[in-house]
């Protein structure tokens, strides 16, 4: 059975794939990006080539190169590097899984194929099992994101008996708001040492109460420090303080969601906060608008997530 160095826990940044203005991958900033996550955000785990990383918009060759660059630059700095290797083609997914093992990744994750879809649990498990078998020593995570894949098989159902079929199964990345399903995944697998990684950043505190062991998300790229404060408060059972942190994070996410928020906007926000150019997204996504960037910047400053010199006191709503 695959055994990770330790169970994946805490915050995991769903990394952005930096691009040049011409839409090519900008490998040159990945080293700086690793340092930023570790030193400025206190985030030591990453999830590469997922939704935020536009993994499904990259070619297989690009995905291999991106994975390699993160593993290389993260060596001796990051705790764990998990590579998302899901693809519509089983063969491509297996190739990426093998490659992740060869380059020394700490785990692989797979979403459900979303064009020709598995319509029941057994078929989905068969697909995942074939991918996992291509890299049997890699800890394997199922990436549940039904709103994007359209595959709505409940995670609870999928997890039932999964380790017997996929011995390298190590956990679940749960990007859905169904806390009944999430809670039941935890409850029914308490005796196993699985990682339960929640993927809806604005609701993380509720998931911690339900037994989440960690979280994978886009906002941990730039709100990692703030979210870590929430995790610490939760850990010391200071629930009032944990709730204040979650509300503060929600205020920002709620604000950008109302403006229209997705991967393009994440790239723009990360560029603003970190100063590292993330570049535009790849088609079919479109660059965040100037108006979005200006509004997001003002909100980040008012909440104290970005330093400022140009705001009047009345415009401040700093989070404690
Ligand atoms: C749909 C989506 O992109 N969800 C994000 C969240 O981090 C999300 O951006 C956040 O909760 C704000 O809504 C993550 O679950 C995605 C993720 O982990 C990934 O990039 O693989």
TrEMBL record:
Keywords: Carbohydrate metabolism, Cytoplasm, Lyase, Pyruvate, Schiff base. The active site is at 143 (proton donor/acceptor), 173 (schiff-base intermediate with substrate). It is found in: Cytoplasm. It comes from the Eukaryota. The keyword Ligase does not apply. The keyword Plastid does not apply. Pathway: Amino-sugar metabolism; N-acetylneuraminate degradation. Its EC number is 4.1.3.3. It catalyses: aceneuramate = aldehydo-N-acetyl-D-mannosamine + pyruvate. One of its GO terms (cellular component) is cytoplasm. Coiled coil: none annotated. It is an enzyme of class 4 (lyase). GO terms for molecular function: N-acetylneuraminate lyase activity. Pyruvate binds at residues 52, 216. It holds the Pfam family DHDPS. Homotetramer. Belongs to the DapA family. NanA subfamily. This is N-acetylneuraminate lyase. The lineage of its organism: Eukaryota, Metazoa, Chordata, Craniata, Vertebrata.
């Amino acid at each position: 059975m695959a055994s990770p160095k330790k169970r994946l826990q805490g915050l995991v940044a769903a990394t952005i794939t930096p691009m040049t203005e011409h839409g090519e991958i900008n490998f040159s900033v990945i080293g700086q990006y690793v340092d930023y996550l570790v030193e400025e955000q206190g985030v030591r785990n990453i999830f590469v080539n997922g939704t935020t990383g536009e993994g499904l918009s990259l070619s297989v060759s690009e995905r291999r190169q991106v994975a390699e660059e993160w593993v290389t630059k993260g060596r001796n700095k990051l705790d764990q590097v998990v590579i998302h290797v899901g693809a519509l083609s089983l063969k491509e997914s297996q190739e990426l899984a093998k490659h992740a093992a060869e380059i020394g990744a700490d785990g692989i994750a797979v979403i459900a194929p979303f064009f020709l879809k598995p319509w029941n649990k057994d078929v989905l498990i068969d697909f995942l099992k074939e991918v996992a078998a291509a890299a049997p020593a890699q800890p394997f995570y199922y990436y549940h994101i039904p709103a994007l894949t359209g595959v709505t098989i409940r995670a609870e159902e999928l997890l039932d008996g999964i380790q017997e079929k996929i011995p390298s199964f190590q956990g679940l990345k749960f990007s859905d708001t169904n806390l009944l399903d999430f809670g039941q995944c935890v409850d029914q697998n308490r005796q196993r040492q699985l990682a339960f990684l929640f993927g809806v950043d604005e609701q993380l505190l509720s998931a911690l109460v339900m037994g989440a062991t960690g979280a994978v998300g886009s906002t941990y790229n730039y709100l990692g420090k703030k979210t870590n404060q929430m995790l610490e408060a939760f850990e010391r059972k200071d629930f009032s303080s944990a709730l204040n942190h979650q509300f503060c994070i929600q205020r920002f996410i709620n604000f950008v969601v109302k403006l229209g928020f997705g991967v393009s906007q994440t790239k723009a926000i990360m560029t603003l906060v970190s100063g590292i150019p993330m570049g535009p997204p790849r088609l079919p996504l479109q660059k965040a608008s100037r108006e979005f960037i200006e509004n997001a910047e003002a909100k980040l400053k008012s909440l104290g997530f970005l330093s400022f010199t140009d705001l009047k006191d009345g415009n401040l709503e700093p989070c404690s």
